[in-house]
Amino acid sequence: MSLPTTTDRRPLGLYALVVAVTAGLLLTTALANVASAHGSVISPASRNYGCLERWGDNHMAPEMATEDPMCYQAWQANAAAMWNWNGLYREGVGGNHQGAIPDGQLCSGGRTEGGRYNAMDAIGDWRATSINNSFNVRLFDGASHGADYIRVYVTRQGFNPITQALGWGNLELVAQIGNTPASQWQSVPSGVQIDIPATAPGRTGRHMVYTIWQASHMDQSYYFCSDVNFGGSNPPPTTAPPTTPPPTTAPPTTAPPTTAPPPGSAGCTASYTVASSWSGGFQGDVRVTAGASAISGWTVTLSYPSGQTVQQAWNATVSASGSTVTARNVSYNGSLAAGASTNFGFIGSNSGGTPSVTCRAT
Question: Distance (Å, rounded) from C-alpha 44 to C-alpha 138?
Fold first, then answer.
């Protein structure tokens, strides 16, 4: 098909109109098919989720440039980053988030996906959610992946997100949860969601909340920047996203192969890993696997070479005596079919070294 010539004014104008309308329809269709295969922080809203929530139905409005200039620059930079808000992740980080993401690039996940989310790192007056010093971070998970862990950070008092780029040294860990399968999250029509309670004392004025979600289905880490204003009240819960699947191909969901622990003589085995560590603390994860026969309960003993302090545990009742940590199943994960597995985890102080691990079935 040949293009209209400049000597034929009416067809040329009609062609331009068709092109503009077609482009608008394509973007509108993309917005209607909001990506919900994975997830995002929806309260206080992450930067790109908030921009979609406010302008998704009116993304071509000229008033956005003056009413919401940071969203405007983000829409102009890459509109796909708005409707595909849940693609802000990296694979294979192995828990070394600071090594994978340089300072100044935290909000884009280290300029992941070829730079699609670079505009999230832009310094400026992003629209902020008013919260008080005790607040909840609500994470939506459209694919029900669950979490190996979720960590919530808040910028230190004195940091100004309007004039400063976000770096790791600006953040303080204020809340975290460990391994939490999707079955323990709240069910909503388009997926599941979970609230992480956080407390950030001494904060006033403008700040940023930074959330790391380590999904359970594979080594896939999600990163979310939320702009907040301390001194207000908590906002009403955000409505979960629509259920239409994304127009892009989702990453593979097959978990990486793992080596099964050796068979045990007591009806179960346990394998231990350090999911992550930081100055003065660590997160331990243990997988319990039934042997050749079904079991109705289990007890795992971890003997460390040096003393440990257990601060928090999930999916098990955990106690410590000296350098020995004892974990027993809770009501919902004690019964395991032959060869079936379950996980529990805990937060401990001091790295301590690798423990010897035994499992006893009942």
Answer: 7
* Distance of alpha carbon 64 from alpha carbon 20, whole angstroms: 20
Q: Which of 59, 74, 65 is nearest to 121 (CA)?
A: 74
Task: Tell me how far apart the alpha carbons of residues 108 and 121 are, in angstroms, rounded to a whole number.
Answer: 6
Length of the chain: 362
What confidence tens digit (pLDDT) does each residue in 195-226 have? 999 999 999 999 999 999 999 988 899 999 99
Query: Could you give the CA distance from residue 6 to residue 2 in angstroms, rounded to a whole number?
Result: 12
Pairwise pLDDT comparison (241 vs 35), residue with the higher score: 241
Model confidence pLDDT, tens digit, residues 339-353: 888 878 777 777 557
Backbone φ/ψ region at 30: left (φ over 0), alpha (ψ -120 to 50), beta: alpha
Whether the ω angle into residue 246 lies within 30 degrees of 0, i.e. cis, is: no
Alpha-helix runs per DSSP H in 69-111 = 69-77, 80-83, 97-100
E strands along the chain, which residues? 39-43, 89-91, 129-131, 134-141, 147-155, 171-177, 186-188, 191-199, 205-215, 220-230, 268-278, 281-290, 298-303, 309-314, 317-321, 324-328, 341-349, 356-361
What are the start-end ranges of the H helices in 199-271? none
Q: Which residues pair with 321 in a beta bridge?
A: 324
Select the highest-mean-pLDDT range: 19-23, 165-169, 237-241, 342-346.
Answer: 165-169
Distance between CA 110 and CA 102 in Å, rounded? 6
Q: What are the residues facing 286 on neighbouring strands?
A: 272, 344
